[in-house]
Amino acid sequence: MAGYVDGFVLPIPKKNAAQFRRIASLAGKVWRDHGALAYFECVADDVKPGKTTSFPQAVNLKKGEAVWFSWTVFKSRAQRDRVNAAVMKDPHLAKMMGPNAPQPFDAKRMIYGGFKVSVEA
Fold first, then answer.
1. What count of other Cβ atoms lies within 10 Å of the Cβ of residue 61?
2. pLDDT tens for residues 57-77?
3. Chain mean pLDDT for the chain
4. DSSP bridge partners of 77
5. Quick one: how many helices (H) and strands (E) in the chain?
6. CATH entry, 4-116, from 3.30.70.100, 3.90.550.10, 3.60.15.10, 3.30.1120.10
7. Are strands 65-74 and 38-43 parallel, antiparallel or unpaired?
8. Helix, coil or strand: residue 78
9. Disulfide check for 75: which of 14, 79, 83, 119 has CB 3.0–4.6 Å away?
10. How far is CA 65 from CA 10, 11, 84, 97, 104, in A?
């Protein structure tokens, strides 16, 4: 049973989608190796700009970009904190996660946060 989820919404330039998938595939393996229960990276298929708010508006989506919705599942917040600390030190991700590492997206427009699971059906 899951008790905590890290969620992300980010804009990925379509030209960088393959690069992002490669990074995400490695990242997902590393997160799972350190104890995450599940790891998902999803590209928008049916999201439209809204009148007040929407996924595209939330990330200030630009022409040639797609919205990605991602999440990682953990047993608890404490477990999430331990896993994320281990992931940040993992040598497999060191080149990709450093503060000067080039990213295939604009991280300033990424939305993320941790969530307690309230309903699991």
1. 19
2. 999 999 999 999 999 999 999
3. 92
4. none
5. 4, 4
6. 3.30.70.100
7. antiparallel
8. helix
9. 79
10. 10, 6, 28, 22, 11
**Which of 65-98 are b and which e, b meaning 16 or more Cβ less than 10 Å from the residue's Cβ?**
bbbbbbbbbbeeeebbeebbeebeeeeebeeebe
Helix axis angle for 77-89 and 17-33, nearest 10°, is 120
* 75-88 tens-digit pLDDT: 999 999 999 999 98
Domain boundaries, the chain: 4-116
For residue 60, is it left (φ>0), alpha (ψ between -120 and 50) or beta?
A: left
pTM of the model: 0.89
86: tokens are: 């281990």
Could you give the CA distance from residue 7 to residue 47 in angstroms, rounded to a whole number?
17
How many whole angstroms separate alpha carbon 2 and alpha carbon 115?
11
